[in-house]
């Protein structure tokens, strides 16, 4: 299970979402110029990364059902 390429890709996608979310929340908590400049961009990247992660998870589930 853990050596399947799609599973590993799903894990990487979830980690990417976590890192992007943590960076966005950290910038929001700190405030200031960085948050004004990059806050919305970080949350857009999070939404995109989440969509990709969900799609990969659906592929994993679909491949296991075959």
UniProtKB/TrEMBL annotation:
InterPro entries annotated for this entry? Hypoxia_induced_domain
Q: Which residues form the HIG1 domain?
A: 1-66
- This protein's UniProt keywords: Membrane, Transmembrane, Transmembrane helix
Q: Which domain of life is it from?
A: Bacteria
Membrane-crossing segments per the record: 6-26, 47-65
Q: Looking at the keywords, is Glycosyltransferase present?
A: no
Protein name (record): Twin transmembrane helix small protein
Q: Which organism is it from?
A: Paracoccus albicereus
Lineage of source species? Bacteria, Pseudomonadati, Pseudomonadota, Alphaproteobacteria, Rhodobacterales
